[in-house]
Amino acid sequence: DADVTQTPRNRITKTGKRIMLECSQTKGHDRMYWYRQDPGLGLRLIYYSFDVKDINKGEISDGYSVSRQAQAKFSLSLESAIPNQTALYFCATSGQGNYGYTFGSGTRLTVV
Amino acid sequence: AQSVTQLGSHVSVSEGALVLLRCNYSSSVPPYLFWYVQYPNQGLQLLLKYTSAATLVKGINGFEAEFKKSETSFHLTKPSAHMSDAAEYFCAVSVAGGTSYGKLTFGQGTILTVHP
């Protein structure tokens, strides 16, 4: 099994719909992150969580919300999806040190 | 706040040629620097990292990067490109302390194309 699992892998949804992207990890790490990737813009941080009771906004949190259900689970919700939220979304996890992230395989979301 | 700039959104090389992907960082405190690679339809995989030990860092698949504080650079190199190196490469920075401790800021990415 993968260290970081994202579901679904691909999703097409309609404008205005609420959608949830899920992420689970088996690394035993406290820290989890949600990024979105757009061509030419790299990865931009949406939300991050340093432990179950700690949730922080990233640089592009508007239109998104998150829930940290357990140490291993961190879900991202789009309250009312819009077309410019079409992107590749990545979940990642890291330990306490500065050793970098382990990424999931991504969720490709298309809002029509 | 820290940031990274990757010079060149696309780099094209011939198989067997030198690969050079450029990354410059901005940080008010000593940085930790990373290179990640993303193959098509996959997540990001760590290539190498600089964590204030040796300035020349060796990574997987024959890649290496040199931390140059005077130039605020962390360029990625490989002496001889292989077709399998075709991918998108991301430089990232984090800092050793403060509220941003451990949180990565990514560059815009560089797509590497390798021609036969």
Mean pLDDT of chain A: 94
Dominant shape of chain A: globular
Query: What share of residues of chain A is helical?
Result: under 10%
The largest sheet of chain B, given as strand count, sense and whether it forms a barrel, is: 6 strands, mixed
Radius of gyration of chain B: 14 Å
Give a verbal description of the structure.
The complex is a heterodimer of chains A (112) and B (116). In chain A, 0% of the residues lie in helices and 58% in strands. Chain A is built from no helices and eleven strands. Chain A has strands spanning 4-7, 10-13, 19-25, 31-38, 42-51, 54-57, 64-70, 73-78, 87-94, 102-103, 107-111. In chain A, strands 2, 4, 5, 6, 9, 10 and 11 form a seven-stranded mixed β-sheet that branches. Chain A has a four-stranded antiparallel β-sheet with strand order 1-3-8-7, with no helix packed on it. Chain A is globular, with a radius of gyration of 13 Å. Chain B has strands spanning 3-7, 10-14, 19-26, 31-38, 44-50, 56-58, 64-68, 73-78, 87-95, 105-106, 110-115. In chain B, strands 2, 4, 5, 9, 10 and 11 form a six-stranded mixed β-sheet that branches. Chain B has a five-stranded antiparallel β-sheet with strand order 1-3-8-7-6, with no helix packed on it. In chain B, a hairpin with a 5-residue loop joins strand 4 and strand 5. The model of chain B has no long low-confidence stretch (mean pLDDT 91). At the A-B interface, strand 4, strand 5 and strand 9 of A face strand 4, strand 5, strand 9 and strand 10 of B.
